[in-house]
Amino acid sequence: MERKSVYGALPAPVLTEEHKALVKTGKVYSLQHTMEPGIPVFGGHAPFVIMPYRRHFETDGMLEGPAGFASEFTMMGQHTGTHIDALCHISKRVGDERYFHGGVPVSGTQDHNGIAKLSIEQMPPIVTRGVLLDVAGLLGVDVLADSFDVTDEHLRACETRQGVKIEPGDCTVIHTGFGSYWKRENDRFLTRHAGANLAAARYMVEQGAIAVGGDTSTFERLPSPRHDVHVYLLVDSGVPIMECLNLAELVRDQVYEFLLIVTPLKLKGATGSVIHPLAIA
User: Fold this and answer.
1) CA 154 to CA 133: how far, in whole Å?
2) What is the pLDDT of residues 65-95, one digit of tens each?
3) Residue 260: φ, ψ to 5°
4) Which of 261, 24, 203 is nearest to 174 (CA)?
5) Which end of the chain has fewer beta carbons closer than 10 Å to its terminal beta carbon, N or C?
6) 124: cis peptide before it, omega within 30°?
7) Residue 175 in contact with residue 31, Cβ under 8 Å?
8) Residue range(s) defining the domain that contains residue 159
9) d(CA 55, CA 68)
10) What is the helix (H) or strand (E) element at residue 199, kind and residue range?
11) Calpha distance 42→269 (Å, rounded)
């Protein structure tokens, strides 16, 4: 079934027979890290804060009868923890103007309500085949070296080793092992993680990937002062990026293809969304 793109490279979500056939055991994997104080957050984004707003016993008398309740207050940016980048997250300067994907000019799209074009509430849910490429496993290590360049050759070798192939309409996720540093070595996780280089990003897109992701904070290798991979994926190709994915259980069980379901929050004008992706194998 041909699926027409409705948001960059993303098509309208449809659960196809091919997708259903990906479910062999029905096991559901959560790809989200727990949101809690102290998690690593990339510079330029708000830290995560959670605190009680109402506690049990404080709400006595607010409801009739014996019932009581509690609630909390949270504060965070939408690029906090496991999240997806909207296409308006990155722009590209050409002359005196900046442009989003599809040649949409930035001028006139930003105000106190956020960004009016290609913002996260316009992104459809993602229901597609997910392909995990375990680059750390390919090289026989638990974690790739700091600032390791994941190339297109690594991705091809993973496909051969794992018996999978990136196909049109897939979401491709890369395992570097840097998720093991989550909330343990935050500075390392945020400043010098391994990641895809531009050739790897081009390979995924040329094979037909409609979204990509990884277990790192920025998907591409850090440091990356130009963010060329982000520009290529979000602006040039219209391919959303998922970051800070928790891939440990998929890697442990050697699950390399699965049904992937991602539901961004409908936050008007926002540049991204916290997500709880599910992989069903």
Assistant:
1) 9
2) 999 999 999 999 999 999 999 999 999 999 9
3) -110, 130
4) 203
5) N
6) no
7) no
8) 5-42+78-280
9) 9
10) helix 198-207
11) 20
